[in-house]
UniProtKB/TrEMBL annotation, chains A, B:
<dbReference type="Pfam" id="PF22617">
    <property type="entry name" value="HCS_D2"/>
</dbReference>
<dbReference type="GO" id="GO:0003852">
    <property type="term" value="F:2-isopropylmalate synthase activity"/>
</dbReference>
<dbReference type="InterPro" id="IPR005675">
    <property type="entry name" value="Citramal_synthase"/>
</dbReference>
<keyword id="KW-0412">Isoleucine biosynthesis</keyword>
<dbReference type="InterPro" id="IPR036230">
    <property type="entry name" value="LeuA_allosteric_dom_sf"/>
</dbReference>
<protein>
    <recommendedName>
        <fullName>Citramalate synthase</fullName>
        <ecNumber>2.3.3.21</ecNumber>
    </recommendedName>
</protein>
<dbReference type="InterPro" id="IPR054691">
    <property type="entry name" value="LeuA/HCS_post-cat"/>
</dbReference>
<dbReference type="GO" id="GO:0009098">
    <property type="term" value="P:L-leucine biosynthetic process"/>
</dbReference>
<dbReference type="GO" id="GO:0043714">
    <property type="term" value="F:(R)-citramalate synthase activity"/>
</dbReference>
<dbReference type="InterPro" id="IPR002034">
    <property type="entry name" value="AIPM/Hcit_synth_CS"/>
</dbReference>
<keyword id="KW-0100">Branched-chain amino acid biosynthesis</keyword>
<keyword id="KW-0808">Transferase</keyword>
<dbReference type="Pfam" id="PF00682">
    <property type="entry name" value="HMGL-like"/>
</dbReference>
<comment type="similarity">
    <text>Belongs to the alpha-IPM synthase/homocitrate synthase family.</text>
</comment>
<dbReference type="GO" id="GO:0009097">
    <property type="term" value="P:isoleucine biosynthetic process"/>
</dbReference>
<keyword id="KW-0028">Amino-acid biosynthesis</keyword>
<dbReference type="InterPro" id="IPR013709">
    <property type="entry name" value="2-isopropylmalate_synth_dimer"/>
</dbReference>
Length: 539, 539
């Protein structure tokens, strides 16, 4: 078995149907960029006929200059009894400026008569006209046969007739959808085989995970002749989600010998899956196949002694092939090589086997154990390594801070004040500021304290702020991890803070961000006449 | 296809190898009780040869008087070069007093020589002697062929020879293990078929989920002739987990027509899966197939209008068959039909086309525009609909709150205090409490105020807390959305708050959670002698 299998990613469309998944246009653009780097062939960006956010996405995605992936817009076949050229939904696809359209139509006679409330003949005409209309406008057309497997089981001849119409109208791909996710791998295999025999078209599969068989069904369809797999990163999607591409891709490539993405792209799989889970703000299950932090973690004593001798004894693949790594849960051995790599990258003047390097690694391990994560916080990691190796000048130190949030029935809304006391050189600087919230107030107060000494601070701003509960078992008493992304005129950096207290965690990340911003920046000796005002509480 | 398939649950043994899973003896007894009620045939309680906790479990489980399930103890074949009667591990199984033993041996030549460091012949003798020894003591013996599929691929004749030895020694079941979870369903099917032809024994399957194929592999083995499935509840287990019985059972029974458990027991599946996730203290993914809260949740407007007409259009099974239920999510993607569906579901006494219903929809749309999201906040939505339609008694009103967070250089860490003033009936209640963070402090203070009037509040706790920045372009001044999930003894609910201030957003969600918890609960008229203390600031 071999050959090329194409990946159609619908994280940005079907993925957002998942409960708790909500993506801004910014989020969608960041994800599209990553998907392109991963090497997927198609990125379904949204449904321009359904909302303005998706229209904005299609407009802005043009400026990303993707290297490989084609952007596809979603839509349905024309309305019953209308002409395609008068169909707003189809015309929105054309207006969105994409090269690829993916439109869905009905294959299940029950759906045609009960949900669509039209005749079987009109449905065939709707499929033909819609595909033809888009082909006449030179789009690549992917026809999604909704509920195909249920339709086939109910009325095979009619289900096949809908595909024949799409093919006759010129559809480039015909994708068989198990919309309700209720079909078993054997049925998928048998039905896809029949379709491949009957319809001389390129066939794809769109599976859902309602029976925990989304990945298995996708693989079964490929074995039966399908050459396009639709799915989402981490299996996001309505109900139990779509087929998880993060598992589909390595299974196809490493286990079944198909060509999907390059070996280098496959090595980015873990990073991409984790990045997208961060953007979507959905914590990745630690036991997620291939890419979870526990996917190659060994706990049992027997397993551990065996994997020391031969990793293959308890690992089905070499974890590095998908960018993951082995972990031994009793003695954390991971990470060391990454840290050493970083020390080298920063050009810190210390030998890799020195006491200082070892101390830095110990410190990082201890912090990771507390819940810090430096993968998404390069600047915090750099500060830590510089500090541990004596390569950091002190910019300022924190004396204290205080936050007061007051919500009164007799005042309009909430008032937040932050008091910050820091030491810059020999001077104590004490400021107060208001803000929209506690973190904003702290940001304002700290900025006010610093900018009279370091005018460069005016050029930097906070670009993103994320909060993640690390151990949700303890709910509001659980630890939280705050990630702050900051930018100045030329680059951006990320910092991290961890605490059971969201304010304290935010403060740590905020302080790191400003310390990082000011590395190597000039300190102004403020004229003494202006100094006293810093001690005065103002805002 | 039909017949009886036996379920062997190893949640208490293999399940506890999962990262983050740790069960006390008490926990294990509670789970064993539930598994028996669910109707599993075997419960693997632990490995008496490896630790004293498991020995205590086997002692105490005798007093549970299980109705159906047999308790099994785990162990390995005898040590190389020793006699079974001198093997402490095998003797511990006998001492544990179980009727069933499950012992594992090596099938993979590579493992025999590299991990076990013995000869292929001695391994065969170890298998024979160990099974024979346990059979001589009248136990039912389940022989687990570790790494069978990898072993078969490496050296089929040797792998089959190990099974023949177990069979010749009298093993009641021979279970083929895909220990590393790397085998694909097709290979499983082919190899299990061959084994069934060659070995005249009852065959079982033990699959892992490393390729996200644990369920598919279990089903494939049954199709090929296996009649015992080993797995764990919710798929707990080492690395990516074991085959998830919560998906295996309904697939076998509802989709493939096998007899597994009774229809009544199947209806308890959702409750059992959630109960065990509570005991294991692992939050259940909302999108878990069959039993997750999102497994039958509908978000897209098109889907919703269709399921109102005919549930079968977008549901692969009737959710009640596994004890789950349909939910309609209200979100930006959905239309008016979702809200109307919800009004109906809540049994609110208003016509769907009334002024009150329209006003509720307008209010929801306006709030969604501000960043609220009700798809993950059923309880907030219910409060809102009840309020809009005059179906809500007032439990308490908020007068004011105040939060002080102080981080001083001269005190250890951060101190957080919350002051809360609410009105219950005609009385003002003013409390203060400390907490790990501002939200925890507010939770503590509000709870203190309420519990003297509503003792029922003690039964509820916050189970999860999520923060999402809605529009990250404004960074720390951006709006945040807070989702809080709460539970009491019988069910769980979710609430939402939105504000640029994370404290205010959390407060809204917290207040909604407690209001919801107290709907219909009795208010105690606190004796007046105890009342004055409520006005005193204490914690």
């Amino acid at each position: 078995m071999s050959g090329r299998v194409y990946i159609f990613d619908t994280t940005l469309r079907d993925g957002t149907q998942g409960e708790g998944i909500s993506l801004s246009v910014e989020d969608k653009l960041k994800i599209a960029q990553k998907l392109d780097e991963l090497g997927v062939d198609y990125i379904e960006g949204g449904w321009p006929g359904s909302n303005n956010k998706d229209i904005e996405f299609f407009e802005r995605v043009k400026s990303l200059n993707l290297k490989h992936a084609k952007i596809s817009a979603f839509g349905s076949t024309r309305r019953k009894g209308a002409k395609p050229e008068e169909d707003a939904n189809l015309n929105k696809i054309l207006e969105s400026g994409v090269q690829v359209a993916s439109i869905f139509g009905k294959s299940w006679d029950f759906h045609v008569t009960k949900a669509l409330e039209t005749t079987l003949e009109e449905n065939l005409a709707m499929i033909y006209d819609s595909v033809r209309y888009l082909k006449d406008h030179d789009l690549e057309v992917i026809y999604d046969a909704e509920h195909f497997f249920d339709g086939y089981k109910s009325n095979p001849e009619y289900a096949l007739a809908t595909l024949e119409k799409a093919h006759a109208a010129g559809a480039d791909w015909i994708v068989l959808c198990d919309t309700n996710g209720g079909t078993l791998p054997d049925e998928i295999k048998e039905i896809v085989s029949t379709v491949c025999e009957r319809i001389p078209a390129k066939i794809g599969i769109h599976a859902h995970n309602d029976c925990e068989l989304g990945v298995a069904n996708s693989l079964a369809a490929v074995q039966a002749g399908a050459r396009q797999v639709q799915g989402t990163i981490n299996g996001y999607g309505e109900r139990c989600g779509n087929a998880n591409l993060v598992s589909v891709i390595p299974n196809l490539q490493l286990k079944m010998g198909y060509e999907v993405i390059s070996a280098d792209q496959l090595r980015s799989l873990t990073a991409v899956a984790r990045y997208i889970s961060e953007i979507a703000n959905v914590s990745m299950p630690i036991n997620q196949p291939f890419v979870g932090t526990a996917a190659f973690a060994h706990k049992g004593g027997i397993h551990v002694s065996a994997i020391r001798k031969h990793p293959r004894t308890y690992e089905h693949i070499e974890p590095g092939l998908v960018g993951n790594k082995q972990r031994v849960l009793v003695s954390e051995l991971a990470g060391q090589s990454n840290v050493l790599f970083k020390v080298q990258e920063l050009n810190l003047d210390i030998p890799l086997d020195s006491e200082a390097a070892r101390a830095a690694i110990q410190r990082i391990k201890a912090l990771e154990h507390e819940g810090y994560q430096f993968e998404g916080a390069d600047a915090s990691l750099e500060l830590l390594l510089r500090e541990a190796t004596g390569n950091l000048e002190e910019i300022f130190t924190v004396e204290s801070f205080k936050i007061i949030v007051e919500h009164s029935s007799d005042r309009s809304g909430v008032v937040t004040e932050a008091l910050v006391k820091i030491k810059i050189g020999d001077e104590i600087v004490f400021t107060v500021a208001e803000g929209n919230g506690p973190v904003n107030a702290l940001d304002n107060a700290l900025r006010k304290a610093l900018e009279q000494y370091y005018p460069a601070i005016k050029d930097m701003h906070l670009a993103d702020y994320k909060v993640r509960v690390i151990d949700e078992k303890n709910a509001t008493a659980a630890k939280v991890r705050v990630l702050i992304e900051s930018s100045d005129l030329t680059h951006s950096w990320s910092t991290v803070g961890v605490s059971p207290n969201v304010i304290e965690a935010s403060w740590q990340a905020l302080v790191d961000s400003m310390r990082y911003a000011l590395i190597g920046k000039e300190r102004i000796k403020t004229p003494s006449s202006t100094r006293p005002q810093l001690g005065i509480i103002n805002h």
